[in-house]
Amino acid sequence: MQYGYVKSESTGKVTTIEFYHPAQNSLPGDLLAELTSAIYKAGHDPETLLIVLRSAGDRTFCAGASFTELSAIDNQESGLRFFSGFANVINAIRKCGKIVIGRVHGKAVGGGVGLAAACDYCMASKFATIRLSELAVGIGPFVIGPAVERKIGLSAFSQMALNAVEWQTAEWGKQKGLFTEAFETVEQLDAYLQHFTAELVSKNPEALSALKEIFWAGTGHWDELLAERAAISGRLILSDFAREAINSFLKA
Fold first, then answer.
1. For 5-185, which CATH superfamily applies?
2. CA distances from 8 to 34, 73, 155, 198, 217 (A)
3. What are the backbone dihedrals phi and psi of residue 139, each rounded to the nearest 5 degrees, phi first?
4. Which residues pair with 107 in a beta bridge?
5. Which of 75, 72, 93 minimizes the C-alpha distance to 29?
6. Please, which residues have CB within 8 angstroms of residue 236's CB and are 6 or more apart in sequence?
7. What is the pTM of this model?
8. pLDDT tens profile 5-50
């Protein structure tokens, strides 16, 4: 438990995938791999019609990449391997064949914003403030960029990417299209999530599958695109700027 987990639970045609890590739900490489596997498994399960992606805890949805692992990267190959972890999760959501609904109850940083953006439908509480902090540590939101830009547009993505220190509100995220709703309480979020999924599983599975394909039209090149983006991050994380920034963060 102290090292985190990814677990799946299926109820009434809905598979809920939950992740957790004690460091504010940051995602090290092993949890990214488990998350990718869980999404594909649910996608291939004939009894699953919808996938809900959520995290545990009460304050942070996902703090993005594990800074401990970032600090340990010492060559481009290991950098590519680590950043490919987020690429693999995004591609799993894209290719799993099932509608993926995101539940964002708290803060989302970096890769956490990418996960929310990759979901086909994402709802949040008002506590789900968001930030792309990558530029502050010497890299940029390269891997998650296509998913975020696809959801909120180039202008809003540029704002978040360049303003790496200020938080945006959940309401801002709703206005830009990242979230469908920003509820006043987590209880309201969960009540609506239950209502929405119960309603959606009553719909024609073939129609939902066809909609999934339409939602992701034009992204057939993302396997290659996200690999290229992961290589950029893997190179930049080795820079003196990035090393100093990450070390400063770990010492704070």
1. 2-enoyl-CoA Hydratase; Chain A, domain 1 (3.90.226.10)
2. 11, 30, 36, 18, 28
3. -120, -140
4. 60
5. 72
6. 138, 139, 140, 242
7. 0.96
8. 999 999 999 999 999 999 999 999 999 999 999 999 999 999 999 9
